[in-house]
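S2.1 Query sequence (histidine kinase)
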Amino acid sequence: MVRLGFIIGFIALIGVMLSGFAAYRVHDQELQIEGIALARAIDVHASLVQDRLTERELLARVASGLFRAPSVVKANMLQPLRSSIYAFKTDFVVASWIARLKPGELGQAESELRSAGFSNPTIRDFDDQPLDIKAIDKPVNVLMDLEPRSPDTIGLPGRALDRHSIVGPMLAQATVAGKPVASDPIPLLRVNGPVGLVLAAPVSQDGSTGLAGFVTFSYELAPLMLANDDRSLFSVVLKDPRDANDEFVANDSGVVTSRAVAQDSPAPSMVRKVTFGGRDWSLAYYAKTNVLQRAQQTAVIVAAIGLALTGIICGLFGYVAYNNLRLSREIQVRIGFERRLTAVIDELNHRVKNILAVIQSIVTRTLRHGSDIDVARELLIGRIHAMSNVVTLLSESQWQGVKLKGLFESRAIPHAERIAVNGPDIAVSARAAQSLSLLFFELASHSDEGLSLVGKHPHIVATWEITGEEPETIFHFRWEEFNTSAATRREDSDFGLILLDRVAPEALGGTAKRYFTDVSYVYELTAPMVTVVDMSERDRTDQISAPVRPVR
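Output structure tokens follow.
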């Protein structure tokens, strides 16, 4: 009996030790796994927020760069930019033009606001209180135009914003910095409106170094920085830049409120900084679940199971082995997910850089020295719209290529209804789609510059065919404008010639030629199908978008 008791006691001791060891391992690994998952989710969220902020700051820079301030005061200054700012598909609440007016221009400004149909055309203070314009002896910043014009915004123009507690200092800082500056959080549209941020980009006066005014965009704070999935592991708040003891938080409906941080409140799990408008913003992340408590609960369960299986050593070892295998599988899945996500981000960064390089080339070539600004603006808007359209099509197909006929849609090609399209509807690669989209826009935009030999717009036929046998098939494209001659068709621009003769052919690894016949203008492009379709690009996209499965 004594010997049996000793054996039972020894088995019980081994069981307790193994159960305690298993509980410790589970507790430690649960903490690590949950910590890695939370940190990774927070990093991804902060990266997405920063990308979103960078896009909106880029819009402000592009808008201020395209803006041309006249020598007179006008109340429709945003008219040339309306199509451009909407082409970016951003979620701004209000875009506005704030003019820096001299005292002698205030009377003329009131006349312009009145003729533009704004409900209150008088120059007044930011809070709608009367303002003695005769007593003003220095330039003031006056809201002169905005978009969209709605019942909530039609009464805002005419307000002088210099004495506004938030907008005034922001405009002063933007004047000194000479670049876009963001404001402190502020209610938008009205006193109790949604909380948001205003981004102001200074605009220089044409022909001088003086400041003409500011192009501003306002955004709601909730979708800009505080949006996150209900199933996410955390909730995010924005630290108030004016008071470290306050923070902004959005509820399930997207309503942002300010709350004070109590001294006994738990500290955030992590804090990340993002940059917007020349300022650093602190995002605090709070874990929705108590990771330590959850790990302890899991450890207690493991210990209880281990103690229950104390009498069966083999069963205990089998449980520990199974539990370690389960944890190993979870770690492998997490690692695989991180690798795939890193590959996706790297691929996205590469493609975004390529697109930005193309846009930079378009802007540089279009707005070259000596070009007509009105013609250049229309060409620039059209070329960027063509790029935006092809990026939208590629995003819908997860960058696996687009149908060639889809590039002839009317929203991307000027007067597409006059183009007769004929050819197999092949799916071209992302690289080929971007080059062909710009090529089609360039051909179509010049085909509509003048009338044909018969006094009508030229009739256009776009055809393509595939010849040869795999793997040496050839893509032939032909663009022909009938009843057109060198005398009736406007010469291609420098950018157009480079695109037609060099950029598009080199991007597809082929050759191109253009010439006039007795009755038409012809552009032909020949390239191997292996570069037009680029199956390696599609295979790579499929690979990085494939779901991660646990190792069995």
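Residues 317-321 have pLDDT under 50 and may be disordered. Residues 2-66 form the longest helix (65 residues).
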